[in-house]
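Quick one, tokens below:
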């Protein structure tokens, strides 16, 4: 069967166990869903994900989330082939453009020549310049930033250059212009950085600083055509919700929505479900990653999963027979693991439509995230370049 609308939702960082190549990334033993479930000691209540088959795709079920006897969705896992484990790598690969060359990393901070250009352009000093937790860095240096007007520049284990500034000290438009300039500096060797991230925050002092929803990602331009472009070129509508617009630098996207939160993102999904269109709605829900994974907060992570699950119930109730819903993730960020960086994990894939005639079955372990986009293209009779569609398995 072919579907009129496909809704893809990426639960950012909701991995489901270490990938076969996890050792290369120092991530053996990571398991985002497994460790969140273990933290809740059987009290993780995600009934909608459960009935779709979120535990059926695992060798060991999530604690307290038994496999469904008759799963509504087809279920499986996907393995990443891209060189990194960043959101950009995961999403680009999902849309048929694996990242084959490792991006620049800066475990000892950024080089002086790059920082000198940023200082000259912004006419501001730079502080920190090393890997740091985003919440810790504003706690430790936010007051200094407010007094001096300097830029807090820091990185992580991913290919990112992040600039934090208090919104009352550096207006958003100025911060965005500085980040745009930084983006222009790191698009080709010797420095190729996946994302420049503006990290504005507010609050009176270090004990009350909070990062705001005015974060903005300035992502490396896609290095080739993606499945979003292919859909748009075939005259299908492509809706980007949340971080999708930044990750693809708005390429291949007909219209987009900015998310204030996961909850707001799901409201946008429900809003688009009430609209008449033919094509692909692609959503990223970043709170799992930004607010709980990087902060190693399993309690908050689980609470966010349970809130998502409630809104997922609203989505399921609103689906039409010619709608297809596909849920997945872009990497792991295990709050029960060491460090504060993403974790190299397999990701879940769940596919559901009210029109299915039989109980969901296993899709196995897909060899690449690109199978996700290949399935979307197959549905709309658009040729794909990477990945293998599983559309014919959905019955």
């Amino acid at each position: 069967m072919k579907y009129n609308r496909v809704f893809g939702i990426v639960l950012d960082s909701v991995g489901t166990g270490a990938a076969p190549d996890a050792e290369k990334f120092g991530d053996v033993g990571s398991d985002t869903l497994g460790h969140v479930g273990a933290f809740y000691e059987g009290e993780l209540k995600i009934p909608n994900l459960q009935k779709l088959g979120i535990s059926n795709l695992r060798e060991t079920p999530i604690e307290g989330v038994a496999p469904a006897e008759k799963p509504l969705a087809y279920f499986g896992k996907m393995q990443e082939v891209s060189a990194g484990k960043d959101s950009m790598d995961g999403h680009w690969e999902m849309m048929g453009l694996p990242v084959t060359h490792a991006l620049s990393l800066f475990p000892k901070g950024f080089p002086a020549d790059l920082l000198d250009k940023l200082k000259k352009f912004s006419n501001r000093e730079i502080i920190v310049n090393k890997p740091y937790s985003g919440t810790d860095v504003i706690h430790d240096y936010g007051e200094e930033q407010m007094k001096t007007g300097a830029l807090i520049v820091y990185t992580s284990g991913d290919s990112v250059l992040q600039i934090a500034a208090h919104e009352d000290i550096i207006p958003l438009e100025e911060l965005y212009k500085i980040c745009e300039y930084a983006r222009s500096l790191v698009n080709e060797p010797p420095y190729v950085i996946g994302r420049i991230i503006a990290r504005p925050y507010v609050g009176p002092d270090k004990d009350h600083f909070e990062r705001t929803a005015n974060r903005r990602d300035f992502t490396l331009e896609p290095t080739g055509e993606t499945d979003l472009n292919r859909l748009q070129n075939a005259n299908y509508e492509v809706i980007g919700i949340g971080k999708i617009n930044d990750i693809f630098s708005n390429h291949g996207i007909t219209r987009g929505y900015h998310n204030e939160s996961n909850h707001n993102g799901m409201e946008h999904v429900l809003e688009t479900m009430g609209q008449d269109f033919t094509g692909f709605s692609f959503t990223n829900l970043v709170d799992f990653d930004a607010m709980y994974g990087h902060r190693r907060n399993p309690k908050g992570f689980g609470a966010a999963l349970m809130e998502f699950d409630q809104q997922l119930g609203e989505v399921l109730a609103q689906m039409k027979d010619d709608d297809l819903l596909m849920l997945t993730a872009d990497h792991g960020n295990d709050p029960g693991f060491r460090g504060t960086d993403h974790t190299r994990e397999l990701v879940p894939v769940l596919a559901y439509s009210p029109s299915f005639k039989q109980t969901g079955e296993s899709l196995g372990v897909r060899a690449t995230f690109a199978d996700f986009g290949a399935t979307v293209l197959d549905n709309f009779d658009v040729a794909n370049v990477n990945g293998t569609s599983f559309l014919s398995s959905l019955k």
